[in-house]
Design a protein that fits this description.
By secondary structure, the protein is an alpha+beta fold. The chain has three domains: about 5-180; about 200-305, Rieske Iron-sulfur Protein (3-layer Sandwich); about 315-490. About 60% of the residues lie in helices and about 10% in strands. The chain has helices at about 5-15, 25-40, 40-50, 60-65, 65-85, 90-120, 125-150, 155-180, 315-325, 335-355, 360-390, 395-415, 420-450, 455-470, 475-490, and strands at about 200-205, 215-220, 225-235, 235-240, 255-260, 260-265, 270, 280, 290-295, 300-305. Strands 5-6-7-8 form a four-stranded antiparallel beta sheet. It has a three-stranded antiparallel beta sheet with strand order 1-10-9, with no helix packed on it. Strand 6 (about 260-265) and strand 7 (about 270) form a beta hairpin. Helix 6 (about 90-120) packs antiparallel against helix 7 (about 125-150) and helix 11 packs antiparallel against helix 14 (about 455-470). The protein is flat and about 75 Å long. The two termini are about 35 Å apart.
Amino acid sequence: MKLSKKSRVDAAMAQIETATSLDAPGYALETALARPAQIIGKPAEKLGAALHGTPLGHPVHPLVVGIPIGTWTLALGLDVLAMLGVVKRKGAEQAAQTALTAGAVGAVAAIATGLADWQYTAGRDRRVGLVHALVNTTALSLNVASIALRRRGRRAEGRLASIAAYGCMSIGGYLGGHLVYRRRIGVDQADRSPEPREFQAVLPLAELQEDRPRRVDVRDETARKEVGIVLVRHGGRVHAMGARCSHAGGPLEGGWVLDGALVCPWHGSRYDLETGQPTTGPSTCPQPSYLVRVRDGMVEIKREQEPGDDTVTSEQIAQAAVQTRGRGPLGKKADDVLFEHHQFLRRMFERIEAMPREDPQRRDLMRTLAGELEIHEHIEDKIFYPAVEPVSEDIPIAHAEHRQLADLLAATLKLNTASLEFDEHVKALHAALNHHAGSEEGSMFHEAQRLGETRLRELGHQMEAMLDNQRTSRFHRSFRDLKISLMEGL
């Protein structure tokens, strides 16, 4: 059986990941890098933290790799334009050489920061990382050779060396992407659950020993999992942070306290007990932190929510209910308005699915359905979601589902209504609508009740008015018809 391009790439990656012959040179290189740092001590530790990006709060390697990628791409483009005669050859050649030189400097920085991070990998990740480093070092060497050749006037050979270097850089880039997006190297590994939202008793204080980390678990019902939290009693105070190390998922409850920080037993990242911020690398990301208090001999903790979180707390619910009372005329409750429209859309789908394929009215009904779906999305986005956002965490997912519906609708409108493919797409679109509507009815509508009946009726009045306006306004109808026609015809 002939392998597809994708399976060939996967097979190549599997060969690298299982190449145990890379282990010995990999560990030898790690030792060669680590030994000088161990001898130098604190200055090397600070340099290592800088190379990781610990003071920055973000890995440095992804920032600096853009330099060689950008400048070497520019050089390649200038070479091509010069060969085609689009730009002046002499000026383009000088600019290309400058870009290659700048890229070489950036590549040295990329290699240094990459090696600093690579030291703290193992197994298949270390093997892929080693090949990634070798390929990119080859790219750097070829471009250095290209610079030397160009300076000697051997521009044709210099361009060939640059082209070969660009090929190596592309392969290296793929390997780097594999490490990040497939193997999750360098991404935040901590558990960012918002639980517990309110203070929750987790352990008797008497069971917590000085400087002996202790793991406790709290339940996240939304994610249906236990969330690990490590408690540390130090200097007469109790501190709490996420138990899963943000660097590589190490178990912080197995670590130890040093200089007021909790040390990860896997790679030595240290986290400040007060703040959860990393004080030394390889970690660059802070641990989830928790407020701690002791009541009646029990340690109680509460998650400190992070900026930008969509977490709903009891304080937010109370505030939203107070701020949204008695603002305007009343109508049906907002959730009832939406439920009725959900039912209307469901019936339209059923009618389309029941119609004979050759019925010309099938296209007309599909256009009507498309318009109603857009109206539904509009009233939710403009009125319902902004009002419910303070009391529901479902809004981001609902927006994502809107995009899914819009994409499926656009694909369906392009199809012949008499085709089997159209039937399949309509069923998929119907399933997407049922999922979206069912999610709102099963969760968001219940959470919306926290706003109070008066506010929900105000919103319902606004939504009914907008629904009527969207259906009767000549401008809105013409604009929808134009968009639907464009989706059908392109």
